[in-house]
Each structure stands twice: as C-alpha cells, then as structure tokens.
Amino acid sequence: MSGHLGAAMRTLVVGLILSLSMPSLSMAVAASPNFVELAKKLKPTVVNIRTAKVIKPRSNLQRPRMQSPFDNFFEEFFGQFNGQMPQQRQRREQSLGTGFIISTDGYILTNNHVVSGADEVMVKLSDGREIKGEIKGTDEKLDLALIKISDKEVFPSADLGDSDALEVGEWVMAIGNPFGLSQTVTAGIVSAKGRVIGNGPYDDFIQTDASINPGNSGGPLFSAAGKVIGINTAIIAGGQGIGFAIPINMAKGIITQLRDSGKVTRGYLGVRFQPLTADLAKSFGLESEKGALIANVEKDTPAEKAGLKAGDVILEYDGKPVNEGNELPRYVAATPIDKKVKVLVFREGRKQEFTVVVGQLKGTDPETTVSGGKESEKLGITVQELTGELAARLNIKDSKGGLVVTEVKPGSPAEEAGTVAGSIIVEINGQRPDTMEKYSAAVARVKKGDVVRLLLKRPDGSVHYVAMKAE
Fold it and tell me: What is the pTM of this model?
C-alpha cells in the first residue's frame, strides 16, 4: 500500500514539475491570420506593371547589360541572341514588375528598377484592365518610383502601416507578379529586421521567408492586419526563403516629395565615418561599441561649422541613439534641410553636445568606411618619410610630405586590420607624427598587448581609423 502511495506521489510531483516548466500550448502558438479574407480584400490594390523601352543598335556585338537582376527575365531568355546577330536592329525590350495603389486618385508605388529607363509604362489592374501610367518621380538611392494612372475614377487603395512597430516572427503576406504569374499570393513571417545587404548607404531591409521571385519587385508586403509594411525589392540568387523589403516608414517621406516635386532631397552633414570595433572603442575609452566614429570632416560643411572633428564618436543624433554606424546615414538623410539638430558625441573621455544645421546632400552618397591601416615593427609595418620620389613610386598624388607605410608584413596586426602600402599616417594615438622621430617615440611607448589607434589616409584618398594590439 505504501509502495503504491509512494509511486503515486512521485507521479504527481513529476507532473507538477512538467506543468510548471512547460508553457501552455495555447500561449505559445499564435493564431495565423485569415489569409483568404486578406487576399480578397487586398488583391484589388495590387497592380502588375509592364514596361517597354526601345533599344537602339550598338556599335559592338556585346550583349546589352540587363536593367535589373530581378525583373527583366525576358532579356534573360531572349536577349542573348540579339547580341550575336551580325547586324543589330532597333528593338523593344520588355520587363514585368509589381506595384500597389496608395491613394484613391491612382498613385502607385513601385521600385525604381522596375521602371528605370522605360519609354512606356502600362498598369494592369486586378480586374484585367490596362491603363497607361506616368512616372511622376523616382529615387535611385532608395529604389522607389511613383506612378500616376491617368484614369479619373476612384481606385481601391492600400493602407500604409508602421514598419517600426513590426516584430520578428510576425505573419506577413506578399502579393505580386512573379515570372508574369499575376496576382500571386504568398505568406510567411518576418525573418529579421535592419538587414544591410550592400545595396546602398540607406540599407535597412526587412527579411522575410514569404516567397519572393523575379516579378515581385515593387509589390507590397502586408502585415496580418492588412497594412503595407514593406516594398518587396531584392532576393538572393540561389537562396530560398530569403527575400528583402524596404520598410514602408522609410518610403513615406519619399512618397510626399515625389508627389510634390518629382525629386528627393536629403540631409547632409559632411562627415565620413566608420563603425566602431571593440579595439577602437577601447582605445577611445568607450565601454561599448555603440556609435559612429567620425574618420574625416570635410571642409566648409555643416559638421565642420558645428565643431565636429575626426575622432568624435556620435552617440545620439536628433534625440535618437546611434547603436550602429550604418544607422547614421538614414537619420541624416531623413532630416529636413536647414533643421537645427542636437548631436551628442564622445570626445576625449567625456560626452559633449553640438548643434548642427543640416545641409542638403548633392551628388554623391555619404560613405560608410570600414577598417584601415596600422603601425611600425610592433605593428607589422615599415614607415618612411614621404618624398617626391617615393610618392611617384607608390603612385601617391598628394606628396606634401609626412609619413607613409611602405611595407605591410604578412600575418601582422596591420595586415589583419586591412592596412595597405601607400597609406599616409595622419595620427597615432591622437598625436600627429610629422617626423620619423615623433613616430618612433610614439611607437616606443607602446607595450605588447596595448591597443594602438591610427588615422590613415589610404591611396584612394579615403581616411580611416584603425586599431590593433601591438605584438
């Protein structure tokens, strides 16, 4: 009897332990959206975009370069024969993409690469009608385009959601035109946020495993609530379940500018920066790697006028924390021109605040620079004073003197940091070594294991901070 009671007690205890350690299944599994009703409601807001452009004969027989790696698949199958014909003729090149209606008066958002260079844009609605579209404006940097349908009727439009509130694991649905198969619905979840894929300085993609293929570009990524939270833009060749969408919040301000003026203006500081590494952060006395390290401040720019300088680490911009260096270009670009912005920086061991009057970006993009070069024998480099003869041999255009790295030892800390011969040493641990004596004295103070920070001007003219541990 007692044995049976003991066994029962043990079973009860084990059951209690399991019930306490395992969450309820009803709490762990979230209900999936009603995709049937979502598709019925949202498909009328999604359109197929067909573009055509006239390709003039070329003087050579090389195959023309494709406009887009995602959508121009007609050229993929047929274009190769055109480049091999003995006599080329004028021809029409077509491509397909997707867009979605964002206002009842017929404004449509899509990718710039869907309509770039098009001589004709035709928009096919969900009911089968085709209407000629007009490109109202494009933004190459963010890969967006705004199209207007000339028809005067009232159109069904998609509601724009809040991509900032989106969380990894949420259900999403894509509607598009993959491989010309119109009104295709796919579903998945948000796989990641803030993806940087090398598309440009404003990369901040939503990654999803909802099926996205050539032809989906420019189409909407909907939340479970039926609101647009992204614009499907890119895929990885050969990858499965990996698609990328531009967050809709990044596009909202661009849409307004394209609608009002047909072009986009962006804020500008005039700094070149690089992300912080653990060694760089330690060399500056920072407790974490959060922030954007200013490598160079261009002359006569908002940053220089505000008092910012190389070596400053930007911790906050306009009240927003800068956790990673690649966030800064997006913050600055979205800032209205002439707005006064507070910038919190870490300089010489303490935090300081500056006020910058944001300028307008012209021509080139802000650059995100990474890594650079290193120091002498302890660091694995050979340094010499820069002479005219040495500048000519190393193909250095700026030969105004100073010290130059002439050799980088294989496997050294300098090589691991990305140092290349021909880099001019601007600073070592915050000091400017304009002579070999000063440089040698600075290196002599370095002990094994110390973190050494260099500011280098590389042969391509870019300026970088690098940090390494001395051997």
Answer: 0.63
